[in-house]
Specification:
By secondary structure, the protein is an all-alpha fold. Helices cover about 75% and strands about 0% of the residues.
Length: about 70
């Protein structure tokens, strides 16, 4: 059975500690491995989905200012 990026990301990180998740993100950014970008996108999707309108505006502003 072939699972998608969302499902794979969830399976791999479910039950991980906050420290483990932070490490996974930092490693992906450190190695600049573009193959991990879809998984980071899934994590961003979680953040965006649960953010309120003010937080979403702040996220967009932060991204805009750092591009």
């Amino acid at each position: 059975m072939d699972i998608g990026v969302r499902e794979k990301t969830i399976v791999e990180l479910k039950g991980c500690s906050e420290k483990d998740i932070k490490y996974a993100i930092m490693e992906a950014m450190h190695h600049k491995d573009e193959s991990i970008l879809p998984s980071l996108g899934v994590l961003f999707e979680f953040v965006w989905r649960d953010a309120n309108p003010i937080e979403r505006k702040q996220i967009v502003k932060y991204i805009k200012n750092n591009i």
